[in-house]
């Protein structure tokens, strides 16, 4: 029996990633390039800049992932086709199309969020079904993963994502100038400064997300607005003449706690709901993924919650929690060995933003 080997390609946002993985869970090659630095001064991802960098990065990234691997040994190519920045997705899809023709390979279209949800099965022994929280700069989704292609959606964000919330607060506070965190992304900068902050100094609880609805959907807009109002009112903005940045650290602790508590309450509800619904069988494992999942305060709070309900908390290593080619290749393996959605009609590939 020939082993399955999949080349995975990821270009849905600002990372160009590629990897080759076999069905024995060996990562045979991987490569990633990020372009965040070129977008930072614009305060968000600029589509045309993303396009240009993906275009320049795809050839070297795929070559690096394929280093010492024969094209003949590749069973199929898997590429993210949704959701994401449409202009970025097109770069990956067009490049993939060239490879498919050149090497005559089948194609596995990948849903980027499915890939995030399945990555854990590459790095850990986790069986279906399990609960997964995907919390990143672009998403906040809580679901039960019932099978490779079967999801029970418990809740998602009604407005912005937790990562975006933290990034916007960090930007308002001018943290990219702060010497101790200037090289960190928003959420990580807040996590670092929050270590020395007191979260009880401010209250960011707004009626919007406190009591009313009892479902598992998320909302972060209210706490973001509340944080912005505090920043304006108390002038909580970093500048180099600042003598004491304690108030800054306190607000970091406060916004981090608000985000984490909110996520915690929704997961708590989800656990109770799944226990209650008999036909929703699951193996009592919670998986965390996405950039925000690398937050240690979040992990600690969810670990305590999981311990209480005798659940296991599993987090893939941070570099596989964020966007990368490995998760796409792995999703390709999971689909290819079950013959799920493997196609050959290359001209039918149309990426979609959502
Ligand atoms: O998954 P990711 O790398 O990219 C996508 O959004 O797809 O997630 C990036 C997000 C950013 O909003 C960043 O601020 C946040 O993850 N993040 C964190 C931490 N590290 C990254 N948020 C909280 N704590 C962290 N340590
Ligand atoms: Zn992602």
Automatic annotation (TrEMBL):
<comment type="similarity">
    <text>Belongs to the KAE1 / TsaD family.</text>
</comment>
<keyword id="KW-0479">Metal-binding</keyword>
<dbReference type="GO" id="GO:0005739">
    <property type="term" value="C:mitochondrion"/>
</dbReference>
<feature type="domain" description="Gcp-like">
    <location>
        <begin position="26"/>
        <end position="330"/>
    </location>
</feature>
<dbReference type="InterPro" id="IPR022450">
    <property type="entry name" value="TsaD"/>
</dbReference>
<dbReference type="GO" id="GO:0002949">
    <property type="term" value="P:tRNA threonylcarbamoyladenosine modification"/>
</dbReference>
<keyword id="KW-0819">tRNA processing</keyword>
<comment type="function">
    <text>Required for the formation of a threonylcarbamoyl group on adenosine at position 37 (t(6)A37) in mitochondrial tRNAs that read codons beginning with adenine. Probably involved in the transfer of the threonylcarbamoyl moiety of threonylcarbamoyl-AMP (TC-AMP) to the N6 group of A37. Involved in mitochondrial genome maintenance.</text>
</comment>
<keyword id="KW-0808">Transferase</keyword>
<keyword id="KW-0012">Acyltransferase</keyword>
<comment type="subunit">
    <text>Homodimer.</text>
</comment>
<dbReference type="InterPro" id="IPR000905">
    <property type="entry name" value="Gcp-like_dom"/>
</dbReference>
<protein>
    <recommendedName>
        <fullName>N(6)-L-threonylcarbamoyladenine synthase</fullName>
        <ecNumber>2.3.1.234</ecNumber>
    </recommendedName>
</protein>
<dbReference type="Pfam" id="PF00814">
    <property type="entry name" value="TsaD"/>
</dbReference>
<dbReference type="GO" id="GO:0046872">
    <property type="term" value="F:metal ion binding"/>
</dbReference>
<keyword id="KW-0496">Mitochondrion</keyword>
<dbReference type="InterPro" id="IPR017861">
    <property type="entry name" value="KAE1/TsaD"/>
</dbReference>
<dbReference type="GO" id="GO:0061711">
    <property type="term" value="F:tRNA N(6)-L-threonylcarbamoyladenine synthase activity"/>
</dbReference>
<dbReference type="InterPro" id="IPR043129">
    <property type="entry name" value="ATPase_NBD"/>
</dbReference>
């Amino acid at each position: 029996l020939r082993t399955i080997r999949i080349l995975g390609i990821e270009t849905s946002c600002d990372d160009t990633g590629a990897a080759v993985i076999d069905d024995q869970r060996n990562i045979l090659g991987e490569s990633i390039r990020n372009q965040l630095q070129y977008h930072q001064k614009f305060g968000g991802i600029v589509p045309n800049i993303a396009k240009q960098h993906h275009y320049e990065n795809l050839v070297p990234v795929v070559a690096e992932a394929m280093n010492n691997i024969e094209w003949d040994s590749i069973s199929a190519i898997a590429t993210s086709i949704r959701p994401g920045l449409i202009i970025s997705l097109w770069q990956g899809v067009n490049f993939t199309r060239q490879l498919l023709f050149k090497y005559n390979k089948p194609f596995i279209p990948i849903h980027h969020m499915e890939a995030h949800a399945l990555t854990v099965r590459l790095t850990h022994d986790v069986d279906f079904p399990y609960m997964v929280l995907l919390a990143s700069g672009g998403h906040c989704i809580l679901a039960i993963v019932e099978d490779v292609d079967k999801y029970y959606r418990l809740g998602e964000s009604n407005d912005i994502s937790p990562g975006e919330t933290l990034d916007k607060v960090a930007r308002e506070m001018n943290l990219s100038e702060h010497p101790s965190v200037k090289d960190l992304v928003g959420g990580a900068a807040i996590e670092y400064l929050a270590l020395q902050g007191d979260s009880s100094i401010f209250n960011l609880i707004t009626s919007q997300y406190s009591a009313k609805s009892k479902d598992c959907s998320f909302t972060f807009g209210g706490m973001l607005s509340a944080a912005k109002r505090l920043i304006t009112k108390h002038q909580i903005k970093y500048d180099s003449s600042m003598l004491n940045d304690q108030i800054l650290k306190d607000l970091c602790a406060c916004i981090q706690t608000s985000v984490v508590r909110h996520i915690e309450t929704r997961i708590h509800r989800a656990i109770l709901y799944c226990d209650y619904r008999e036909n929703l069988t699951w193996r009592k494992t919670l998986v965390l993924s996405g950039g925000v999942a690398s937050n240690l305060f979040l992990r600690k709070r969810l670990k305590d919650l999981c311990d209480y309900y005798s659940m296991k908390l599993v987090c893939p290593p941070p570099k596989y929690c964020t966007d990368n080619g490995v998760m796409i290749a792995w999703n390709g393996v999971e689909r290819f060995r079950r013959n799920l959605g493997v196609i050959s009609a290359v001209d039918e590939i149309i990426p979609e933003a959502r």
